Amino acid sequence: MSQKLRDYDYPLPEELIAKRPLPQRDESRMMVLHRDSETIEHRKFRDLKTFSRPDDLLVLNNTRVLAARRFSDDHAVEFLFLEKLGTARWKCLVKPGRKLRIGAATKIDNVSLRVEEILLDGERVVALDEDVDLYAHGSMPLPPYMRRESDLGDGDRYQTVFAQTPGALAAPTAGLHFTPENITEHRMHAESFSISDEAAKKINNAKRIIAVGTTTVRVLESARRENGKLLPQNGSTDLFVYPPFNFQLGGALLTNFHLPRSTLLMLVSAFAGREFLLRAYAEAIRERYRFYSYGDCMLIL
């Protein structure tokens, strides 16, 4: 298995990047990959039930995306508020970074904001003069490849129908941005998760798990176990999955089509096999599938 970033690349025509969702969620196309035979089917998402067994367990991420994107009052600086650190203190990403060095100040909702610290990965720790709900007037942090501002429709369609617990954040970039091309040197940002007692019991008793999304896979693969059984827990994971990887999850994965040279593409390559996956992506391009967040999906069995 390759550990070179260039070996997780593919050419994608710009017009196949989905900028808007389909009118109906379940009208999305679904490419089905059979790992045992390395064969491919072309179906619709609504056909998912035909590939499931009576004793399968669908494991979902029910985190709700926060309206975390804000601009300074003069519209000169874009913020993505990642985490509240305490009263009137936040960790955030800013663009352009040159405008907010340590000690720099601006305003949001007419409240002064100052940069206290710049972290190693470029994130800022900022302090406001008063505690305000920065998500109240925020917008959905759409991925930059959509090349448009979010609108009212995104408030609904950029959430799953089962979204409940606020906390998800869409990063401003989806690809890897590091100089060395050996992917083992990359370090992932941590994602928080919570597994209830009920969920742990269902996962432990399942004959086969269908993981919905790459975050679900990372949680299932990194969560604490005792005597082989998943424990109910709150935690975080910075697990970076790339080939070769010995999965504890032996079931199936439902996922979208991911950016070239990205950590998500590497995770899916580890699950399906890099050569088979890249062949499937080439076929998806020939068949005019829609790519990325608002695009079509892939079921790997």
Topology, pairings included?
Layout: E1 29-34, E2 39-44, E3 56-59, E4 63-65, E5 69-71, E6 78-86, E7 89-95, E8 105-108, E9 111-118, E10 124-128, H1 154-157, E11 165-168, E12 191-195, H2 197-205, E13 208-212, H3 214-222, E14 225-226, E15 229-230, E16 233-237, E17 252-256, H4 263-272, H5 274-286, E18 297-300
Parallel strand pairs: 1-18, 3-13, 4-11, 13-17
Antiparallel strand pairs: 1-2, 5-6, 6-7, 7-10, 8-9, 9-10, 12-16, 14-15, 17-18
Helix pairs in contact: 4-5
Descriptive account of the structure:
The chain contains five helices and 18 strands. With 301 residues, it is of the alpha+beta class. It folds into two domains: 190 residues, 3-Layer(aba) Sandwich (QueA-like), CATH 3.40.1780; 60 residues, QueA-like (Thrombin, subunit H). A hairpin with a 4-residue loop joins strand 1 and strand 2. About 4% of the residues have low confidence.
